[in-house]
Amino acid sequence: MTSSEAFREVNASLDTLADNDAVDAAVAASEGIARLEAVRLRALGRLSRHRDGLSSVVQEVAFALSVVDGHAAGLVSTAQALTNRLPHTLGLLDAGKVGGYGAMKVATATAWLSDEDARAVDAVLEDRIPDRNSDQIRKAANHAAMMADRDGASRRAERNRGGRRLSIRQGDTGVASIEVEDGPVEKVAAAYTRIDREARALRADGETRTLDQLRADVALDLLLGGQGGKSERSEVFLYMDLNTYLGLNDDPAEMAGHGHIPASLAREIAGGSNTVLRRIITDPLSGQVLDLGRDRYRPTAGLDEFVRVRDRECRRPGCHRVAQACDLDHSLPWQHGGHTADTELIDLCRRDHRLKDEPGWNYRMTSDGTLTITTPTGQSYDSSPPALHEPRSEEPPPF
């Protein structure tokens, strides 16, 4: 019997289980997943040691496992910690007593400790975290780490506050989230109090939006330079077929950095009072950008703007930083014969721009715009500029 056949047989048998047996099956599956996580983390730890912890390991793991960069970074750092200085936690993972997410909490809580203190905390936690949920593990690990180095607690707080950053997370269709991570607690609390106060004032004045909606709207308006409670102007790149704009079809549009949005929402955004429309000429057969119309309310930046409009986002597969925030780079380095032309220029975010110059990474672009990235382990990944529309016949559509 093949493994696929065995899985199908097991899944079919689950329909006959009583409730208690179903819970037992779920527990057994979770324990098995934890053991496989241990295998994966050991493998990633081995890769990191072999490559001397190069930052490019994170990008290679993101490619190979098809995960976002932040998750790949968490996997690599957890693998390094577990295989170098948290042997007891790794043993609990082997035994299925702690899941991969819980092990990651231990690695994060002890990351600031010396190797000696981390190993001591790891030994203490061996009896405290088995069969606990991730939040219980986080609290136990943080407490044990603080007790192991009380003098370092204040330095840790300062270091954490120094790591403050702003992040964006793309959500389901038409929504996204913005977060100030690791901000000073007193400023975060004060900011929330102000937002909440203004939201409640608007609510008291007869606003029909919920308090949650008002808090979100006030926060965004304040970030965009307003006083809260009213719409503010912002700039985004929205790609929409003319027929969609005119209401002749309902093909989804695309917003750079976010992804596809429904035609109705795209038309609503495009119909805003401050919206600037720009004509983009495409190849009807491939949908690729050929040229930009020159009529717009700001002057064109020529080649730079063309490449950014064409690429939309960073060209490394899996990276969605919008092209406006990226560097323009030669796929073939200038010093190696590259040319400053649209056939060789690509958008790369600053991190991926630096990654391109690390040993073992190779970037090549073909005449049709396909970028092939080869990693130090010899794996290749392709990236093509997204077409603005599906390929069409050469005959114009009827009107």
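Second entry:
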Amino acid sequence: MRATKLAPIAAAAIAAALVLTGCGGGTTTGQAVKSGGDTETVDPASLDTGTFPTTPRPPFTTVGDEFLGRSVEGQRMAEFVVLPPEVDPTLTESASMSTYVIKDGKSLGILLPGPTPQVAADNGMLVGFSTARSTPGKANDSSLVHAVLRFPDAAAATKAANAMHQSVLGYDFGNGLPAVGKVNALPQALASTSESGGVFSANAFTPHNEYVIYTYASAPVAQKNWAADVIAKAYELQAPMIEKFPATDPANYANLEIDVDGVLRYTLPTEGSQSTSSLAVYGSRGAAHSSTNALANLENFTRTGTTHQAVDATNVYLSETEEGSQQLRDAFLAEMKTENDMAEDAAPPNVPGAACLSAKTYSGTEYYCLVQFGKRLGELGGLDNLPELHQMAAAQYLILQAAED
């Protein structure tokens, strides 16, 4: 998928943390609709929308809960976290499992097994965001996991960095205890290293104001210097970036807005639970973390004047102009064809300007569809059920039409 937040439609389209239940199906009224600069007459009754909702949701308010507010804060932080290919352009392969909002210390378990998550929680970790990429290739490729973790203040961050470093040194990851390491270009980093099966890996915790910048790098043993270089480079780029983050007072987490600028309400809702990285609104950098080609995503947002990506059962992108939205659609289709080897497939019946692609995968046929109307672009995908995806696309089209009314 171009955007890894889209999940198979056979399951609920994104997994676990905030809950939102969809409405039933229906139709909207209207006559002339626009797509691709043309005016066409589309009878909503001619569209098969199944049981999917066809009208926008009511405006969202504040999150209303401190714990769920941590997810929103982590989503906001994503806009101020460096992208791995900015550290090294060869890091292009997505690692979606390690790219996520870290809503508290205990949620660090995806990145760091053993006692470290509890250590982070005991030291008051508030929230964080992690991003990861690897070089395309074999099992012994190079990889980078990079995260920013926020603590109550600078003293707590320094204490936490030391405690997490010690917890890693005392935990056997399967090849003996790690050794104390050193990053010459980043002497303040608390580093540990290990070697196994021809692979060299390093963990580094570097306190910076109220944050701990955590970076993990692995590479073939013959390229171990690369690991130190990317850890230092990641910090060099990250430190000034996170200083610009307008962090929220934890006492106000419950008052954070879910739908900044009113974009999320035009997505299709997920039935069931969701991940901490979904039910979200991202800017260009936040959206890039989970895209197939992170740097191209950044460039596409800038070139097309796209300002927002809203994430739920579908993604909706908001551009400053209709032309920009059309250009974004064309760029996404081209990317999926060239980088994901997808081919054109049947488009949703009677939905102007919509397009679908497909490709065979080890788990079935993967489908990807785009629906563009006015300044908004809907993105959706799934496995092995094109008729249902067509219904979703038709419903998304009517919702986007209503956004322009």
